[in-house]
């Protein structure tokens, strides 16, 4: 009879051999191929951008920053010479010649013009629409057209929310839309009433009063008047200029507003308020709001000379 320890040794040996055979028979695995991928991480400091190419299995990297400059670094640092909207593209190439491309939209140190016209790099870009904001800011008021745009004593300061609607019965003032395009073209939608926010004296001088649609703001020299927007209109933005305009408060009927940003328009076009002076001053602009100074000639004794100004906040409509 065999020793019981001999049987135990044989069982253990058999178990080990079985495990080895099993391991060899199940080892059908192959090397896993990780596909070529590409993504972009970035951080912005003013006009300087740090880019990182987050790639798998790439052997080369080609960057197009969208401003006419390129790089082949994996993680480049690029400084844009001008603020604005840019599309930066990364093209990664794998060892087998495969290619993967990805892109990001950047908003770099946006200048006022870019804030005005919006992100023209977007595929569905159709300009940037603005309208008068009904929830007036604390900086909205009715002013005298003097050198400092002092508040007009006969009007609330600041303007209450919705004053042109609930207060003056002209809610349509808040509906009209003004669209600025990157290429300098301009569109104006007067909506269903076919009328624009306007000066009362202007309407009497230019239409004999026949163009007046709603005179709810007559106590302040304001109304809405019929207006047909110009086809193919354009606008001009000037970042800094000395703007000369008419004024009953100025020597020889004019004043100069020094070092201001302005918007001017072709033909009969305007923004916000239709009156003798169609050029406006931009006091402030962000990506979602801008504050404009629009002039009014409200005295029948000084036809065409600005007597007042309306300072209003506009909001983005699209």
**Assembly type:** single chain
Distance between the termini: 97 Å
Largest sheet: 8 strands, antiparallel, barrel
* Number of individual domains: 2
Tally of separate helices: 4
The helix content is 10-25%
Outline type: elongated
Low-confidence sequence ranges = 1-26
Please count the beta strands (DSSP E, at least 2 residues each).
19
Mean pLDDT across all amino acids: 91
Structure classification:
mainly beta
How much beta, percentage-wise? 35-45%
Order of helices and strands: HEEEEEEEHEEHEEEHEEEEEEE
The whole-angstrom Rg is 34 Å
Q: Strands across the major sheet, in which order? A: 8-10-11-15-16-17-18-19
What is this structure's SSE topology?
Blueprint: H1 4-26, E1 37-45, E2 48-56, E3 58-64, E4 70-71, E5 77-79, E6 84-94, E7 99-108, H2 112-117, E8 128-132, E9 141-144, H3 163-167, E10 177-180, E11 185-189, E12 195-199, H4 200-207, E13 212-214, E14 222-226, E15 233-246, E16 254-265, E17 280-285, E18 289-296, E19 308-316
Antiparallel strand pairs: 1-2, 2-5, 3-4, 3-6, 6-7, 8-10, 8-19, 9-19, 10-11, 11-15, 12-14, 13-14, 15-16, 16-17, 17-18, 18-19
